[in-house]
Amino acid sequence: MIGRRALVAAGLLTPLAARAQSPWKGYYASGATERMVRFDGSNGATLAGTLLLPRWSELQKVPGVVLIAGSGPTDRDGNNPLVPERLDLLKQIAELLAAAGIASLRYDKRGIGGSTPRPTGSLEEQERFFAWENFVGDVAAAHRELLRHDEIKPYATALLGHSEGGLLALAAAGALSAREMGSRKLHGLVLAATPGRPLADIVHAQLVRSAPSLVEPADRTMSTIIATGRVPAGLPREQQALFPPYAGPFLQSVLAFDPAKALASLDIACLILQGGADRQVVPMVDVQPLIDALGQRSGPGEAVIVASVSHNLKLVTGPADPGFAGPVAPAVADKLASWLRPLLGA
């Protein structure tokens, strides 16, 4: 049983290097059922997704988890065309959850893959389409779609967000875990490689490490976006990649969003899962505020930092390895299953 008081375990787990394959690999091929779905998202968008059901869902209802992708053009499987290697992060997580007896729904974000494409009209139309509130609403819509399937226990569901997806999960979790939802409310939250500081601080720190000459102009741009909700016109090319013109309202919300404050206001069970070799969300500087927030709550929680694991939850073999390739790190797979199964009754 998971206690009512928050449990913070910030120690390092040593990954088992000899286990090159995830311990859950193989179950997917031996009976899990994949179902393609389409459902209404927020503000008129249609979202396309994949429901993966464990093999024993034909015999009994099973818990379910909504998987939420990270930033940029990342699809339902966790792949991003801007990344040179195929990650398959969310697909791998879906498969290891199925092996543990837990269903999952992963979906293409608006503007990506099989979901409603990005509008080609005016800048204002694109700004409305990509508003932060719409992405948060899409998370809630995905949870409703998960509950719509008869195989899912309506009283045993969770959200799992990776990176920026964790911010969306935090923003959506308050309404989904509200008491008035009764037995259909959200019961768990997994924040994987999710920053605990406002994104404006994270971007500043990343530029200090990787592109010092951009720090001052990017800080000015972010201040303007937060104040006005618009991306300044005529930005140089190196800033346009960070601040696309259509993303003004989205960036205004996400740059100022305080994830630690959001988590502190939630009593829902929460697992913080972080790679010790993450170069984007750096332990402990970027993650410590979330860990501190766990201690301010009455609900149960746990934080785990896994050594030699990247931002994408893969094993890192050395300083030059970005941690894109291979399966989800075995220690990460073990922790996800061992935490979610008792919480959701799998």
Describe the structure.
- With about 350 residues, the protein is α/β, with parallel strands linked by helices.
- The protein contains 11 helices and 9 strands.
- The chain has a 9-stranded mixed β-sheet with strand order 1-9-8-7-6-4-5-3-2, with helices on both faces.
- The protein is globular.
- The protein starts with 11 loop residues before the first strand and ends with a helix.
- Mean pLDDT is about 90; it is low at about 1-30.
Condensed summary:
The protein is an alpha/beta fold. It is built from eleven helices and nine strands. Mean pLDDT is 90; it is low at 1-29.
General form: globular
Q: Helix- and strand-based class?
A: alpha/beta
Beta-strand percentage? 15-25%
Q: Give me the strand/helix succession.
A: EEEEHEHHEHEHHHHHEHEH
CA-CA gap between termini: 13 Å
Question: How many E-type strands?
Answer: 9
Largest sheet: 9 strands, mixed
> What is the number of helices?
11
Unreliable stretches (pLDDT < 50, length at least 5) are 1-29
Which range best describes the helical content: under 10%, 10-25%, 25-40%, 40-55%, 55-70% or over 70%?
25-40%
User: What is the CATH C level class of the largest domain, in words?
Assistant: Alpha Beta
Tally of domains: 2
Rg, rounded, reads 19 Å
